[in-house]
Write a structure and sequence with these properties.
two-stranded antiparallel ribbon; 15 helices; binds NADPH dihydro-nicotinamide-adenine-dinucleotide phosphate; single chain; two-stranded antiparallel sheet; about 375 residues; mainly alpha
């Protein structure tokens, strides 16, 4: 059992902690931004949220690998330890909040404003007034997923490093959690091109909701199960580990498979899915593969993946289960919003689609 008191360590906030946290955040975001500009990547044309098109540079995977390399070298040579993310967790959380609110205010007062921007300060601040500024050729909205998910990966890794330094090994549960979450983040960057057809890119403006979600919620909240893996470790049996692995593999297959099928279809409607030519409604809506079964099986798959993350903590507490619960409510709500959007966009075609794929996320339920 760990000798450290989690709250004493990570909730200690001094002026020095806050200053160091600010430096770490600014340095990290600047490093990722410069990396996004200079690293090579495929240039892809995709939609923006104003009904136009823009060019996105797909170098997230190269960036992620570069950061892993830099952090590993720094850890080995003792230049910087990932345990700092753990000791400074609360200071980082406080400063990230401050900076996210300030960044959103800057976007509102000094950023570009599109003609369709909402009137009034509160809605404008919350929802944003622009589809996403482009700085030095980088789409800031797509860029923001990088500090978000690489930040999450580093926080997750920091819990493993602390455990290893304390007990000299990783528990089976921690190993599983690390493997699952690493694959999840890696998959995001491997499939980054698919992001340009997602709701956030095609429908949302860049305001507080996205800024806070990307910079605060995802990195700081999505590592919740790791706290329990570190401070209340459970012994999970090989049988339980296998069952959790099967759930993860099933969820990942649904989540990645459905996203991949839709993305491939958007780029080329004449693709083959599951060995047969893709079937469509008027060439606009895919009704083959996962999209012919349910209208949002990608959401269902991702929820299974998050349940698998959390099950590695056993049932030692209900608190880590807030993570899959949160994601399920977010995605249920989002699927309802997306249905409205698609009904308005596709009209009668969407009703025909709903006859074909009768449920959205869960058969007989939603
Ligand atoms: P989707 O990728 O499901 O995109 C929905 C859009 O896809 C629709 O608006 C429509 O847009 C198009 N579409 C819907 N049905 C079809 C069809 N049958 N054929 C062709 N096009 C169709 O949703 P999101 O963008 O919300 O999510 C993307 C991924 O991100 C998901 O896997 C989700 O789980 C994940 N996510 C994760 C979150 C997290 O916090 N971990 C939060 C939010 C999302 P169009 O106008 O292009 O046709």
């Amino acid at each position: 059992m760990l000798s450290l008191d989690p709250f004493a360590i990570s909730t200690a906030i001094t002026g020095a902690h806050l200053l160091e946290a600010t430096g770490m955040i600014v340095g990290f975001c600047a490093l990722l931004f410069v990396g996004s500009i200079i690293l090579p990547g495929k240039r892809v044309t995709g939609p923006d949220a104003e009904g136009g098109e823009r060019i996105y540079t797909m170098n997230g995977l190269a960036l992620f690998i570069a950061i892993i390399f830099i952090v590993a070298v720094a850890e080995v040579f003792d230049w910087f330890s990932l345990t700092t993310l753990h000791t400074h967790f609360v200071a980082l959380l406080v400063m990230m909040n401050v900076l996210a609110f300030m960044f959103t205010a800057w976007l509102y007062f000094f950023g570009p404003r599109s003609p369709s921007a909402p009137k009034g300060f509160l809605r404008g601040y919350f929802e944003g007034i622009h589809a996403g500024p482009v700085w030095f050729g980088i789409d800031v909205k797509l860029y923001s997923y990088r500090p978000s998910l690489i930040g999450l990966a580093l926080f997750n890794a920091s819990f493993a490093v602390v455990q290893y330094k304390e007990i000299g090994e990783l528990t089976l549960a921690m190993t599983l959690y690390q493997a699952f979450t690493f694959l999840y983040v890696m998959n995001y960057f491997h499939f980054e091109e698919g992001m340009i057809h997602t709701w956030d890119i095609i429908s949302e403006r860049f305001g507080w909701m996205l800024v806070w979600g990307d910079y605060v919620l995802v990195p700081f909240f999505y590592c919740l199960p790791a706290w329990w893996l570190l401070y209340s470790p459970v012994e999970i049996t090989p049988m339980a580990a296998t069952a959790i692995g099967v759930l993860f593999a099933f969820g990942f297959w649904l989540f990645r498979g459905a996203n991949q099928q839709k993305h491939s279809f958007k780029r080329n409607p004449n693709i083959r899915i599951w060995g047969k030519p893709a079937r469509t409604l008027d060439g606009r809506l895919l009704i083959s593969g996962f999209w012919g079964i349910g209208r949002h099986l990608n959401y269902t798959g991702e929820i299974c993946v998050y349940i698998a993350f959390t099950l590695t903590t056993g049932f030692v507490s209900w608190v880590p289960f807030l993570l899959p619960l949160w994601l399920a409510s977010l995605l249920f709500h989002r699927s309802t919003r997306d249905e409205h959007r698609c009904r308005a966009k596709y009209g009668e075609l969407w009703s025909r689609y709903s006859q074909k794929a009768r449920f959205s996320m869960v058969p007989f339920f939603h």
